[in-house]
Amino acid sequence: MTTEELINREHEVIYQTYNRLPVAIDRAEGCRVIDVEGNEYLDMLSGIAVNALGHSHPRIVEAVTNQAQRYMHISNFFYQEPQIRLAELLTARTGYSKIVFSNSGAEAWEGAVKLARKWGTEHNKTGNIIAFYGGFHGRTYGALSLMDKPLYKDGMGPFLPNTVVLPYNDSEQLRATVNDQTIAIGLEFVQGEGGISEATPEFVETIRQLQAQYGFLIIADEVQAGVGRTGDFFGFEQHNIKPDIVTMAKGIGGGLPLGALLATEAMSHVWVKGQQGTTYGGNSLACVAGIVVMEELQNGVLENVRAVGAYLRSALEDVQQEFSAYITEVRGRGLFLGLALTEDATRLRNALLQRRVITNATATTVLRMVPPLVLTQQDVDVFITRLRESVIEVTSM
Fold first, then answer.
1. Which residues lie across from 330 on neighbouring strands?
2. Is the pLDDT assigned to residue 305 strictly greater than 90?
3. Is 247 exposed, middle or buried (0-12, 13-18, 19+ CB in 10 A)?
4. For residue range 233-246, what is the model confidence (pLDDT) as tens digits?
5. In the predicted model, what is the mean pLDDT of residues 22-37?
6. Number of domains making up the chain
7. 130, 266: one domain
8. Are residues 250 and 341 in the same domain?
9. Half-sphere exposure for 362 (CA within 13 Å, toward CB)
């Protein structure tokens, strides 16, 4: 079956809500993806920061296969050792007290909004939940209510009341909005869809000071930045702050759908039985994959992110200096990086795809790179060679 044939079949039966690339995937391994024609691609996107250990990691394949032979789905009416073990690993690593698993980051975010509202009710707070421009928290209703993406929202309102979206890194506007009725501030400390934009130390300090003054919750969306992608387990760890609630997904499942909400001890009794639940969240297959991810992070993967991430960033900075009229900035840290361009990043993404490299254009003018955390320096060398060729092509047109 050719790519063209598969595209034609897909158009007949699947809702056209994605701007798909003209590539049909057959198989993948490590940092490489192979299409149905046999072409091999260097994957610098990893399923949008999902395949933390690369594609078809042998330990994940083994763990999932063994678990599937025992059972696949039971439901959350029963106790399950894989779920408990993963929760133990996560709480031990992060210092959070309680976890509720979900299917995805969007579901985890919805849970965070619900938990914050319930906490607000208990503390007689009736004000807003605040989020920021450029943030992305999912496509569900509560997530859309706390985002500024017109394309995702047009024609679908009205959205949740008592939600406010403010400019990112604008301390003055935030101070003017927060009061003693504010329930929560939710943010990505490193924005993915927002163009690999980071919260400044000054902005984070403003949030911390306002929390001390007004007593609201801080919700960290670590769906994309978490699980080691920045070189720390969570993206907020470089700041002097501990959010009350953290949402995570993507990399923790190692390629399987898995999300989680983590909360501090002070938040651990807000929900009572029956107030939060999910059919598939924390399913056994995803949890055994998550256990492998946590173990591998402790066995050198996090160090690899720091070393190879620094190597990649240095190489990107060299390219930026060479083509400074086209590339204005290198953004991010670890293996969560972006190139800010002077034009729409789609042309560069397409030129790279022609050279068998998978990347992503985000925030219109930013080329996003979120490769597997097991990327090697040799992979970086291949990527930089093809990136330079692609930039030369695009800038000479």
1. 339
2. yes
3. buried
4. 999 999 989 999 99
5. 98
6. 2
7. yes
8. no
9. 23
Question: Which three-class secondary structure state does DSSP give residue 51?
Answer: coil
State both tokens at 179: 């009061």
Question: Which DSSP string do the residues of 208-247 spell out, in sequence order?
Answer: HHHHHHH--EEEEE-TTTTTTTTSSSSGGGGSS---SEEE
Q: Residue 372 has which token pair? A: 């597997």
**Chosen domain end from 249, 269, 296:** 296
Band the pLDDT of 330: cuts 50, 70, 90: very high
β-sheet with 357-358: strand ranges across: 25-29, 32-35, 40-43, 357-358
Q: What burial letters (b/e) apply to 190-220, b meaning 16+ CB within 10 Å?
A: bbbbbbbbbbeeebbebbeebbeeeebbbbb
* 197 DSSP β-pair partners: 191
Considering 296, 326, 360, which residue would you say is the last residue of a domain? Answer: 296
Q: In this structure, are strands 129-132 and 163-166 parallel, antiparallel, or unpaired? A: parallel
Which 3 state secondary structure label does DSSP give 82? helix
Task: State which residues form the domain around 353.
Answer: 3-57+300-395
CATH code where residue 249 lies? 3.40.640.10
Are residues 51 and 64 located together in one domain of the fold? Answer: no
- Buried residues in 280-319 as b, exposed as e (16+ CB within 10 A): bbbbbbbbbbbbbbbebbeeebbebbbebbebbbebbeeb
- Token couple for 76: 């959350």
Question: In angstroms, rounded to a whole number, what is the distance separating the alpha carbons of residues 318 and 322?
Answer: 6
Residue where the block lists tokens 């909400």: 261
> What is the residue type of 317?
E
| 88 & 36 share domain | no
List, as one string, the DSSP characters of 100-146: EEESSHHHHHHHHHHHHHHHHHHTT--S-EEEETT----SSHHHHHT
Same domain, 224 and 156: yes
DSSP letter at 189 equals: S
Three-state SS at 14:
coil
Tokens 């299917």 -> residue: 103
pTM of the predicted model, to two decimals?
Answer: 0.97
Residue type, 5: E
Closest CA relative to residue 192, chosen from 225, 165, 149, 230: 225
Phi, psi angle pair for 283, to nearest 5°? -65, 155
Paired with 198 in beta bridges are 190
At 248 the three-state DSSP class reads strand
Residues 251 and 321 in one domain: no
